[in-house]
Known about the structure:
alpha/beta; Glutaredoxin; 5-stranded mixed sheet; 5 helices; 5 strands; globular
Amino acid sequence: MAQHPWFTSGLDWHKGLDEALAEAQAAGKRLMLVVGRATCSGTRGLVERTLAKEEIEEFTREKFVVVAADLDALEPRAAELVAGLAVKAPTPLIVYVAVDGRVMGSTAGGRPPAVLLNDMLGATAKK
């Protein structure tokens, strides 16, 4: 199996949701679940260009533990989080999760960097 493109970015990516959520809880951070496909140009663009922007990468490292989820092989818990979204978005998709497992928001991956950063700020501001 080919390596997912997002594992080559400068972020510390996790492959498993449970491991990432446990780390987020221990660190007092939110979880950022990035759902995409290795063959998707949108997913590659999100990871290689948008999430790699210095201000976004820095904010992500400070506030989130990041986990990648392949849409074609979602873990059951990741599938539940995506299925529970009020608004269904195409891939790539970012789901923001509180340490207690509540979804705090989501962002379609093709958004401009400023919109993504605004969504991330909103997700971290929610109680």
